């Protein structure tokens, strides 16, 4: 059991799940082993309908795919798409925050506001936006419009690349890796790695670097800065972690995913007197919000909300039998959570049109209906 988790609470829940016949991530890993050697080495390809192909670089047979791609090209193509998918996920999270910032600036929402006005003004000035005479909303709108350009295809570099040392930018330029636009560079990777396009593994890997930089200096950095502007810049806090944060006498609600847009509103709603009164009407002493994975960290570092566990603890939190509801947005959410929740009284609720889970409850959530 200690090989599966070093945490005593996790070990107890793994054992409990085994007694109750609940299938967990470790069970499925065991079922999937031994893994396919070709897949582990990135030597499979299904990017066109002439395949799928498996490449054996050592030969003598299957050294080339049907199109003629060798092992190096096949691995580079797979790696490039792997990077593009991750960059797209991170950056699309940033886009949601950016759209919320724009909605604040344009007066389309009153549910969200600017908590760190000083940081908003500082970022505006850093990126060349003149703030004198502008209201907070006008600054938010101007900054949002600038960041929207980073998601397009007409710029030569993303705005925050100005933060990089000149020596580093020179390296990017020399290797053709300067991030130009988040969506542009991700789309170009999908194009390059299609059959019959870029057949140079080194060229593909260099563009993978550009895609990663577009995320790191673009989408992810935009998401981080906007999160601070809207929800407040984190400060060191003390809190509690692991499954002991669940409370026997309260309604336990777990928030899971990546987006503070959802989790911050769930926390705000759980603190409203009317909602607390409804919990007490059914015998609970209150509502206990706890986090899972990345959105849990968002609430932990800004609000001191306890953290029930990381990615591999998500199923185990439900196995406790103490969780009334898991509310998710997107990313890092195993589809198995719906099945595990159905083994107990836990309700599983998804909130994003981008991430739906068959068997769960779906309630669309955005900046327009956040308080409904």
Number of helices: 14
- Class of the largest domain in CATH? Mainly Alpha
SS content category: alpha/beta
What is the β-strand count? 8
Oligomer: single chain
Average pLDDT over all residues? 96
User: How many discrete structural domains?
Assistant: 2
User: Beta-strand percentage?
Assistant: 5-15%
**Alpha-carbon distance between the two ends:** 44 Å
Sheet of most strands? 6 strands, parallel
Instruction: Give the proportion of residues in helices.
Output: 40-55%
- Low-confidence sequence ranges: none
Tell me, what's the shape? flat
Task: Predict the CATH topology of the largest domain.
Answer: Substrate Binding Domain Of Dnak, Chain:A, Domain 2
Radius of gyration: 23 Å
Which strand order do you get reading across the main beta sheet? 5-4-3-6-7-8
